[in-house]
Every structure is written in structure tokens, then in C-alpha cells.
Amino acid sequence: MPDAIASGLKAEIITTGTEILLGEIVDTNAAWIAQQLREAGVNLYYKTTVGDNEARIREVVELGMSRSDVVICSGGIGPTVDDVTRQAIAKATGRPLILHEDALATLKERFARFGVAMTENNLQQAYIPEGALLIPNPVGTAAGFIVETERSTVLSVPGVPREMKHLMTETVLPYLRTRAGHTGIIRRRVLRTIGIGESMIDATLGQLMYGSNPTVGLAAHTAQVDVRITARAESAEAAEVMLDALETEVRRHLDRYIYSVTPGESYETVVVRRLQSAGATLSLLETNTRGTLAARIHSAVPEFDPLIGNWVAGESTIPASLVSHLPAGEPADLAAVEAHAAAAATALQAESGATLALVLLGSAGADEGVYGRRSGETWLALASAAGVKTTHCPFGGQDEYTLIRIGNQALGLLQRAVDDAG
């Protein structure tokens, strides 16, 4: 499958900073730059993070120059000893560092304006590789620069997010659009799916996965998969038309599994909003999922909470009217467990007065082996005006993946009940 849209300028991002490698800060710069490149119609193929080490920065810059039209470096051009990106880029491009008189004058003027003495180490911020184009920095002291070579172009911007964004917006992105010949923009859409695995989506979509423009890509998350469709066109409107056509094709195969086109929107948010629209209320009893489903529902839509009662076996006082319907200890007979779950859901609805009553009844199971083979069983029962519906989850357990899977199946039961009633 092609890994990007075929035509256009190829770029990569290098962010420097040992603090990023150590996990002390999150690299938000690369994510922001990537989004801007997409809007500018520039293909991003690689992102690299490297520590504050001149030799290693030089190594990744040289690698970038060997495979990309443009290499964008963020960070490491300040006044301190560990700011070594400019030296690394100079060596990677074979250009000596020279004092840029305009950069020096701007630097002195900035310090004078703030009434602060300029220390000797600040002088290095006025040095750029010979023949490079200066990127002025009116919001900071570290000017950026652009080094054009026969092989590739290297651009250097500060790591301070505010400064980086200003230089990118005012200078770098216009430069890249010109370099790209204004070949259009890239638009992306995310179709969020649930209830189908990544490999099954790949097999189901077949040849759609091999297109060059527009393209289809997959991103798997815990018990959920995103289908990303991307298009390049001369205008945003034309790209959206391409995406509309591709989405129609994807939905022809996967529509029953697609629950949202909003990036980052959770399944519980979609289901709770449907409960809200239907004016439904919910009571919930969890015996083997530690209240995780209640927590997801509570947090889904802060301004609306459909739960008018929820209980967790072993962690709260369960009403006496429900206790008789719960098997003692770990349930063994699956048919008996289903009957217990259905009876408990009916009793729960009567006890709470909710329009929907959901019971998750099962064994905690056990996690076995290196790959976390899951044992245990769970029955779900939902009581509504239409009666009681049950469904079986062939797993139990206390690990995060299993708890999410059981919760997703329960949310699906709620969604279908609301849809059928509507």
C-alpha cells in the first residue's frame, strides 16, 4: 500500500532535545508542524527525535537530506552549550558558520530594548551556515535559517513553540508553498470504527487500501480502529469532493461499524448523546468490570449523565431486591448465568425506575501467559420497554483491554436498543 500521496514535495521533521527523549516534555512541535505541512500540501514521510548531541544531530540531518526534499529542524539554536543544532547542520551541509551582521544587529537591538546586557554566549545565535537564508525572529532571540543544497534543503527554527509557530507561519510555510509549486493541499478525514479488527478492515476494503490519491490508512487503538482517508487536490473544495466519494465507498463495506467521523470522539460519547436525544435514563449493575463502564458513561457528556443508579458488586451496597438474582461466587453454568443476568436486569429496572437497565454479570477470569490469553465469561442483559435482551461476551478478566471490550459490547447493546425504539 502506498505510504503517502504520490506527488508533491517530500519533507521530514527533526526535533532536538534530550528532555523529549527522556519523556520529560511532550513533543508538540512535531505534531503542529505536521498539521501545517498537510495544509500546505507537503508530504511528510518521516519524523525523528534526537538528543542534544552534535554528532547524532548531524547524522540524522544527513540521513534526512539523502531521502527528503526538505528537512525541518526544530530546536537547539539558542545560546547555551547544549544548543548544537546550527553546528550540526553546518557540518551536514558542508557550510562553515559565519557571522550574519543583520542577525547580530537585531540581536543587540533586542537586548538594548529590554535593558539587558547581552552575554558572550548569545553571540552564537547570530551565526548561520554560509550562504543560508536568514529567517528573522521578531518574537525571540534565535533567528532561523534555510540552507539550500543540490541534494536537499534544511530549515532550522527554534524549539520554543511560540517562536517556532511564528517563523513557520510567516516564513517557512510560504517558502514551502512556493517550493511545492502551489501543487494544492492535503485534506484528511477519520472514520472511527468499533466491533471490527484492523486485519478484517484491511481484507474487507481490498483494493481501496492500494490507492495513491486519495489514500486509505488504518490506525489501531485499544479495541477500536480509525480509518484515515486522505486526498490531495488544487483546492480544499476539490479535496473534500474526493473524500466524499471515497468515504461513500468505505461506508459501502463498513458502514455498520462506523460510529463517528470526529477525530478523538469516544464511542461512549456517541452512545450517551443518543440516550440524551431519546430522553432515556439508565441504571447499571457491574459485577466483574469494577465500575469501568459507569466511569466511561459518567465522563462521556459532562452536561448530561443518564445514570440514575449504578452499582458495582463487591464495592457498594447492592439493593436487596437484586441480591437474590446474583449467583454466589464465580458462575460456572453459562445458561444459568444468562438467566441470572436477565432476572437481575428486570429487577434493576423495577428498582430504579430507569427506562433502561443494564447488567454486566460474569467472572473475573484470569490473565495467563506472556500474551495475556484471557479466560472467563460475561453475560450482558438489558431491560427496556421492549423486554429483556441478552448477549454473551466470551471473555472475562481484569486487564484494561478486556474491560474496554466488555464495555464496548455493552455500549453497543444500549445503542441498538435506542435505535430500535426510535
Strand order of the largest sheet: 2-1-3-8-7-6
Distance between the termini: 41 Å
Count of helical stretches:
13
Overall pLDDT? 88
Structural class: alpha/beta
Please mark out the parts with pLDDT under 50 across 5 or more consecutive residues, or reply none.
1-6, 366-374
Helix content: 25-40%
- Describe the global form: elongated
Proportion of beta-strand residues: 15-25%
Rg, Å, rounded: 29 Å
**Can you count the beta strands?**
19
Largest sheet: 6 strands, mixed
Secondary structure layout:
Blueprint: E1 10-16, H1 18-21, H2 28-39, E2 43-50, H3 54-67, E3 70-74, H4 85-93, E4 97-99, H5 101-113, E5 127-129, E6 133-135, E7 144-148, E8 153-157, H6 161-179, E9 185-193, H7 198-205, E10 215-221, E11 224-233, H8 236-254, E12 258-260, H9 267-278, E13 282-286, H10 292-300, E14 307-312, H11 320-323, H12 334-352, E15 356-362, E16 367-368, E17 373-374, E18 378-384, E19 387-393, H13 400-421
Parallel strand pairs: 1-2, 1-3, 3-8, 13-14, 13-15
Antiparallel strand pairs: 4-5, 6-7, 7-8, 9-11, 9-12, 10-11, 15-18, 16-17, 18-19
